[in-house]
Design a protein that fits this description.
Elements (H helix, E strand, L loop, with lengths): L1 H17 L5 H22 L5 H19 L6 H27 L4 H8 L1
Helix pairs in contact: 1-2, 1-4, 2-3, 3-4
Length: about 120
């Protein structure tokens, strides 16, 4: 899951240059992309950490809503990119967070760790 989230973060960083947008949308994409990359690296460094997984979901919500909150939804390329990437991060973050939350909760998993 980390490589996918990392790749999405990198895409979000480079997307303003690929899709040619500037100003507020550029800053928003680059900053959010850096945050997503940092969260992916955090999860890679500390695999048991749940917080970065859920923060990926939060970053996704922000990206999906940011064109409307920051009022740049009139530019189609930036809006489509932000919403699609945001939805992808929401889905991945929720799946990733729930996947990790479910691990180790069964009696069988706990007994294996104790052995």
């Amino acid at each position: 899951m980390v490589p996918i989230v990392l790749a999405i973060g990198v895409w979000e960083i480079v997307s303003p240059y690929v899709l040619s947008f500037s100003g507020g949308p550029l800053v928003n994409a680059v900053v959010t992309g850096v945050v997503v990359v940092v969260l992916a690296l955090w999860a890679l460094r500390i695999p048991s950490a749940a917080l970065p997984r859920w923060l990926v979901l939060v970053a996704g919500v922000w990206l999906a809503l940011s064109p409307f909150v920051l009022k740049f939804s009139h530019t189609a390329g930036t809006t489509v990119s932000s919403v699609i990437v945001g939805i992808a991060l929401i889905v991945l973050g929720a799946y990733w967070g729930l996947q990790r939350a479910g691990r180790g909760s069964s009696v069988e998993d706990r007994s294996r760790r104790m052995a």
